[in-house]
Structure formats: structure tokens, C-alpha cells
């Protein structure tokens, strides 16, 4: 990413409006079509965690105890409870 002087690319009236909010600071203006992805969506980590959570809920419904699941998935008992009782 390169920096560009605002006065070289923005109309004077827009520059004056922006200066009402920011003066002498760097600001980042994202591209118009850029939408923000949630954590882990780009790498696939969120999908893997969602699959793991479904597996945890299924095993709990099948009769596994919270402590068994915590040990199997290397999570705390509180984390397992949050996964089990979360509405999805």
C-alpha cells in the first residue's frame, strides 16, 4: 500500500469536509467492493471450528459427558459447556 497526498486526488470541498474529522493523520480508505470477512473465513479455520462444535454437540447428545469431551478435544469444561448450550 502506498500513501498519496489527499490534495492531489480529492476535490477541495471533499478535502475540507474530511479535515473536519481528521487533520495530519493517516487514514485508510478501503476499496468499494471490499467486504470484511469474519475471523477464520479466509483460512478455513472458522469452518473447521464449526465442524468440531457440531461433533461435540452430537457426542454430547449421544451420551458423552462434558468432562470426557473436554479431555478428547483438549478444551476446558467451561468451553465445552459454551459450545453445547449455544443456540446455533
Automatic annotation (TrEMBL):
Domain of life: Bacteria
Coiled coil: none
PANTHER family given in the database record: MU-LIKE PROPHAGE FLUMU PROTEIN C (PTHR37812:SF1)
Protein name: Mor transcription activator family protein
Species, as recorded: Clostridium manihotivorum
Amino acid at each position: 500500500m502506498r500513501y498519496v497526498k489527499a490534495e492531489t486526488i480529492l476535490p477541495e470541498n471533499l478535502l475540507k469536509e474530511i479535515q473536519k474529522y481528521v487533520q495530519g493523520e493517516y487514514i485508510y480508505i478501503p476499496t468499494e467492493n471490499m467486504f470484511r470477512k469474519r475471523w477464520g473465513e479466509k483460512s478455513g479455520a472458522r469452518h473447521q471450528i464449526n465442524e468440531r462444535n457440531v461433533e461435540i454437540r452430537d457426542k454430547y447428545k449421544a451420551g458423552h459427558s462434558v468432562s470426557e469431551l473436554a479431555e478428547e478435544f483438549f478444551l476446558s469444561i467451561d468451553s465445552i459447556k459454551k459450545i453445547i448450550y449455544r443456540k446455533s
